[in-house]
Design a protein that fits this description.
alpha/beta; Quinone Oxidoreductase, Chain A, domain 1; Rossmann fold; 6-stranded parallel beta sheet; 17 strands; 26% strand; binds NADP nicotinamide-adenine-dinucleotide phosphate; binds zinc ion
Length: 346
């Protein structure tokens, strides 16, 4: 099926209009008209090869919300007209212990990414969601609650689940002090979820102008890291720190903010190693952990939670011809708080 999209044709190149054919529907496939596609900082890292060699032409986009237009002969999970979401992967081995546990993002054969890689046939380049049309195996798509605005839902498919999962895993909730590093696409979802779970939430941001927004999202405290003395003032304060920063930083300053047995969860992926002073871990028996998106069952759980609690992303809806400017503004931490492309503009 002919598909209109925007693609990067080589590393670091501006994205341009691009047409290609999506596969015909197999028996377990669902076709969808995309309504909105979010712009994740991971799209930018990959289109610019900041994580190493990438596959081009690249149609980025793994925050996809739309409507089912056609179903394969054996599909049982969806019907035509359903709202449907697609996230960061479109398949996995299905048989390893992690897949069987619903943790497909940690598939032992590696998940099949929505873009920047090959489908499981090993030769078809996977093309992502900056497009008008998508085809997905029903097992790797989720239902979207009907009460939420679809533009604000799209970012939940990556930014949302990526914060929901560690918040659940590290038991962020009542009685816990949690800090969110970076108030961008991921960080602002972290604030909303941590507040909804009942934790005491602090934003650690290098953009002092974001304070009013952070408080409107429910954050109880806002600390501007532009002023280096705040690190001395907030020593040993937090149970959990969720690090969503996309750039290189001094991780040791942030580790010193953890209380006894606290954990700093690395979520942001700048592409360069951190210079870790292990002494920061010894003092206070602290841990550093990592977390990557979430599996299909948890993705559905998160969307249902959002439906029940009326949680969506704060978005700036753009047309496709603004993608390159949106990339520049995202890198400059100038987005409130997720760019979402109106797929009618492809
Ligand atoms: P984003 O919207 O650009 O947000 C990143 C935030 O980091 C910015 O808004 C800014 O917050 C802060 N920041 C940026 N540059 C900084 C600097 N030089 N010093 C200090 N703080 C800085 O990006 P995103 O889409 O949320 O993604 C964040 C990171 O997570 C990216 O590296 C992305 O690849 C990664 N990611 C990981 C997963 C996963 O599964 N683990 C999933 C998706 C994305 P303030 O303005 O508030 O300081
Ligand atoms: Zn993402
Ligand atoms: Zn697997």
């Amino acid at each position: 099926m002919n598909t209109r999209s925007y693609a990067a044709l080589s590393a670091g190149a501006a994205l341009v209009p691009y047409e290609f054919d999506r596969r015909e529907l197999g028996p377990h496939d669902v076709a969808l008209d995309i309504a909105y596609a979010g712009i994740c900082h991971s799209d930018i890292h990959q289109a610019r090869e900041e994580w190493g060699p990438a596959v081009f032409p690249m149609v980025p986009g793994h925050e996809i919300a739309g409507t089912v237009t056609k179903i394969g002969s054996s599909v049982t999970k969806f019907k035509v007209g359903d709202l449907i979401g697609v996230g960061v992967f479109v398949d996995s081995c299905r048989t390893c212990e992690n897949c069987k546990a619903g943790l497909q993002q940690y598939c032992l054969e590696d998940m099949t990414g929505t873009y920047n890689g090959y489908e499981r046939d090993g030769k078809t380049i996977a093309m992502g969601g900056y497009a008008n049309y998508f085809v997905i195996n029903e097992d790797y798509a989720v239902h979207i609650p009907a009460n939420l605005p679809l533009d604000g839902v799209a970012p939940l498919l990556c930014a949302g689940i990526t914060l929901y999962s560690p918040i659940k895993h590290w038991n962020v909730g009542p009685g816990k002090k949690v800090a969110v590093m970076g108030l961008g696409g991921l960080g602002h979802m972290g604030v909303k979820f941590a507040v909804a779970m009942g934790a005491e939430v602090t934003v650690l941001s290098h953009s002092p102008a974001k304070e009013a927004d952070a408080r409107a999202m429910g954050a109880h405290h806002f600390v501007s890291t532009k002023d280096p003395k705040v690190f001395a003032e907030h020593q040993k304060e937090f149970d959990v720190i969720l690090n969503t920063i996309s750039a290189e930083i001094d991780i040791n300053e942030y580790l010193s903010l953890l209380k006894l047995h606290g954990t700093l969860v690395v979520i942001g992926l700048p592409g360069k190693p951190y210079a870790l002073q292990v002494g920061s871990l010894l003092n206070g028996r602290r841990s550093i952990g990592g977390s990557m998106i979430g599996g299909i069952p948890e993705l559905q759980e998160m969307l249902n939670f959002c439906g029940e609690h009326n949680i969506v992303s704060d978005v700036e809806v753009i047309k496709a011809d603004y993608i390159n400017q949106a990339y520049e503004r995202t890198v400059a931490s100038d987005v409130k708080y997720r760019f979402v492309i109106d797929a009618a503009s492809f």
